[in-house]
Amino acid sequence: MDARNTDALGAALDGVAEELRGFAFEGAGMGCALLDLLTLSRGRRLRELLEGAGADYPHLIHVGAGWAFGKLRLRPWHALRAGDPLLHWLAWDGFGFHQGFFDSDRVVAGQRWERGLDARQRAVRDQGLGRCLWFHECAEPEALGLRVAEFPPWRRADLWSGIGLAAAYAGGADQDELRALAEAAEGHRAHLAQGAAFACAARLRAPTPLPEHCGSAALALTGVPPETAADWTDTALADLGPGPHTEQHYERWRAGIRRLWAAHHGCDSTGDPARQPAEGSWTTEAAEVAEAAPRSRRSR
Questions:
Q1: Contact, 170 vs 130, CB < 8 A?
Q2: Strands (E) located in the chain
Q3: 169, 139 contact by CB (below 8 A)
Q4: Where are the domains of the chain?
Q5: Distance CA 169, CA 165 (A)
Q6: Per-position DSSP letters for 14-68, written without gaps between them
Q7: Which of 96, 135, 124 is nearest to 112 (CA)?
Q8: Consecutive 10-residue runs of the chain (300 residues): their mean pLDDT?
């Protein structure tokens, strides 16, 4: 899209259909981040977008920035100098989506990940890969369940988190399919719900009407209206205390949402009332197992 500055870009994006506008701002985030990285401008364009025309789409813009890193074969690390310090970690989500979407043979079929990532970076990266799977498997619950089952057990929870996010934000499934999706995520229902809650928060932050599919997905995947699911994200965020910004804070945020979902439904973090509370995804033990996995599963 031809635009001289981020204000002009925002004005142009206002013409995009309301339901799709968030995706447009995701693309804008990618474009601004690409230009910032290529011109060494220390995040100027991305900052202007986040503080101006895209102020109501911070989640999508940070995700889009992650696409830019993937496109340039870079990793987000600490190079994202603009935006919310906690939402910076969504760049890893966008990076994971990019890797799965553009290199599906290696990343989806081959289940490979990049070397040198710590457990929490892998977790957010796999959340993004889970979002990608929603599109890769054409939103079909059975296909998604089979695909996730191909991955090592310690990666599945984060994949389901991304699937829940995509199902609620992007749509593409009817009520019967959403119920089937929840059943397919057995053992990872809290992660599915956490992803859907993120989607509800992002949709409700935007100054556009909530799409019907988001409300339906919220009820099917979280068991509550979208407003309640979005409130869980705010409550869990407030519980982090002042100035959350680290990857540990981001993972605690996700875990807090899962706990609120579990408390609401009177079950543990798997969704099974008979089980003891499960550990979060990508635990230290899981990371150690992952590092011991065959080298063929890892790539640069």
A1: no
A2: 113-114, 298-299
A3: no
A4: 1-85, 118-268
A5: 6
A6: TTS-GGGHHHHHHHHHHHHHHHHHHHT-TTHHHHHHHHTTTTT-HHHHHHHHHHH
A7: 96
A8: 74 93 96 93 91 95 96 81 85 97 96 91 96 98 98 98 98 97 97 98 97 98 98 98 92 97 86 43 43 45
